[in-house]
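Closing statement on the adenosine-5'-diphosphate sub-project.
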Amino acid sequence: MKIIVLAGGYSPEREVSLTSGSLIANALMENGHRVLLLDVYEGMQTLPADPDTLFRTEGRYTHSVSETVPNLDALRARCGNGDALIGKNVLTLCRHADRVFLALHGAMGENGQLQATLDSFGIRYTGSGYIGSLLAMDKDLAKRLLRDAGVNTPEWVLCDPRNASEDDILRAVGLPCVVKPCSCGSSVGVSMVDTREALVEALRTAAAWDSAVLVEQRIVGRELTVGILDGVTLPPVEIIPDEGFYDYKNKYQGCTREVCPAEIPDEITQVASEMTKRGFAALRLAGYARFDYLLDGDGQLWCLEANTLPGMTPTSLLPQAAAAAGMSYNALCEKIISLG
Ligand SMILES: Nc1ncnc2c1ncn2[C@@H]1O[C@H](COP(=O)(O)OP(=O)(O)O)[C@@H](O)[C@H]1O
Ligand SMILES: [Mg+2]
């Protein structure tokens, strides 16, 4: 197959995406496909007379993540795309491919905007469609649907951080709580809050990323994540940050220990699997996804969110879980492409 791996994008998570994208592209080449890794935001200024020559069958793509959140203003100035989120020639090239592997994270890649655009152009792509992507990306909508489907999720309120009443928030959710942008990922803008003063500060932090902010009851316990692929759940992975919570740095700088399969009772694995399948259907997802959970001291599972485009480096959580189930990274990439 002729495959475009779409990565990067105008999102704080672009670096992570470019790393996943490179490795996915390499795996697909090894699987015998012809592959082009393309930054959806940067696009390609000029096309060769025969775009087929852009698709590689050998060699390796590389990219590594820096320690800080990328500077999007600098990127925007450099690319000169203005307000356009899809770069020059991206759609032309995608129409030229048999399939598009979405290796994006955050913003347009995860909120369904890109999926809707690809649908409109008749382009086939991996993972969930635009409705599922949107529903999962909006943490408030997702939690409403999860709760209605009987998937346990922590109490929360949605607020406009510019004129939120701390009294109302504290009455509804209480302390300690967690403040997070409604539609971000990678723990960007997420704060753990123990005091009223910290709440004010946390709302300001989250407001920099989103005009809608969730304040959620804090759950103390172990962190688990469960992948689902083609209707089958993978073994849960436990995430143990060296210190603090699973924030941006812990996620991408390896300051975290991951135990896969998680050492938890079989009954909990069973409940997590059941919840994930139910959540997957409730959010109208397709292909594959990864659900984040907390397990409290009473053995109760709490679903935090669903990720429709989970990290896809070989050491990312979903590929690790697939490996524990006996599926290699290359086989996983192949499976995802075949489901697209
Ligand atoms: N209600 C909560 N209680 C305790 N910790 C939380 C809660 N919500 C989020 N966290 C911590 O913040 C991290 C990021 O939150 P999450 O809702 O998964 O958003 P993201 O989309 O940024 O991954 C989680 O992995 C967890 O470590
Ligand atoms: Mg998460």
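The mean pLDDT is 93. With this model delivered, the sub-project is considered complete and its resources will be redirected to Aim 3.
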